Amino acid sequence: MKIIIPKFSGFCPGVKKAEKLLFELINRLNLNNNKNYSNTSNKKCNKGNNFHENYFLLGPIIHNKYYIEILKNKGLTVIDEDDLNFLQDENILLYEENLKIFFNKILEKYNLDYKYIPIIRTHGIPQQFEYFIQKYFSKYIDLTCFKIKKIQNLIKEYNKKNFTTIISGKKNHPEVISLKSFSKNYFIIESKEEIKNIFEKIKSQNINKILLISQTTYNYDIFNFAKNEILNFIKDKNIEFTYFNTICEITYNREKEAQNYLGKVDLIIIIGDKTSSNSIKLYNFIKNNEKNNIKDKTIFIESFNDFLSIFLNNNFMTEVKNNKIKKIMIISSSSTPEILEKEIVNYLNNL
């Protein structure tokens, strides 16, 4: 049996960079905690005191439940996604006092205070919330993906020129929640059908400058469709239109590499989280690809236990032993830790 792992499988450069810094912080935290135990007659020091720094993550650093549990088990506090839903409410973001009321509830819930050091997740946070963090915390760490930072600055630049921003992406995705905050006026499109609805609003609001960008992990077809529809819409109008394909090339390259093996393998294992946009996008691309001749043997798994359950209950083990499955492609999304991929590879290699 041969296992194939295409190029670009796993963490993207932005996540790898964030992970490196994050684990340096965790190691420092654990080292200092150990020193403090010995300095206080084995009594645990209160978090946030003067002996050492304590950090907390402003939401999951990536959309992967397995990985977030690893971070929590290492002693890092991670604010749950649901507790940050207030960041979608512009009436809260616009008024500092409202923002402080909601954020204080989070600090209380997680037994934190303003002596801690917040860590901004790779998806970024709304501009107003970042100003709040800068004002009320003496230190903070920004792990926003460098590509998302570039898009934030791009929107900010065009906002100064009075451009309305159209974002191709999921409305409730943390990256999109962050990006839209950098534009005074914006629209978000999740599907091809939504773009034409926006044209009426552009007319009624007398918008004459449009910027089109995309969530880094979103669908290129939707972005490209929106671009062409806008170009057709503005043909006879005095509207300035600028667009940037801001979809991360790693996600595109990963899909293309995987496509090279379609029709040449007997089983496909896609590893990711079902709450992750790039994981779902990768799965749909491979599963629905016309070159995929084994759609019934294209599986999407979140954990090793998930893999075992599907692998054993669908007779894949029997087919491997009977030499009916000779080649297996394993590919991980941008938000899948390498340790999970290795665990599955090691299991298969030991069959």
TL;DR?
The protein has helices spanning about 15-40, 65-75, 90-95, 95-110, 125-135, 145-160, 175-180, 190-205, 220-235, 250-260, 275-285, 305-315, 315-320, 340-350, and strands at about 1-5, 55-60, 75-80, 115-120, 140, 165-170, 185-190, 210-215, 240-245, 265-270, 300, 325-330. The chain is an alpha/beta fold and about 350 residues long.
Oligomer: single chain
Low-confidence stretches: 35-52
Helical/strand content category: alpha/beta
From the alpha carbons, calculate the radius of gyration and give it in angstroms. 23 Å
Shape, please?
A: flat
Number of helices: 14
User: H/E element string?
Assistant: EHEHEHHEHEHEHEHEHEHEHEHHEH
Beta-strand content: 5-15%
Q: What do you see in this structure?
A:
The chain contains 14 helices and 12 strands. The chain has helices at 13-39, 65-73, 90-93, 96-109, 127-136, 146-160, 174-180, 192-204, 220-233, 249-259, 277-287, 304-313, 316-321, 338-349, and strands at 2-4, 55-58, 77-78, 117-120, 141-142, 164-168, 186-189, 209-214, 240-243, 267-271, 298-301, 327-332. The strands form 3 sheets. The chain has a 4-stranded parallel β-sheet with strand order 1-12-10-11, sandwiched between helices. α5 links the parallel β4 and β5. α6 runs parallel beside α7, α8 runs parallel beside α9 and α10 packs parallel to α11 (277-287).
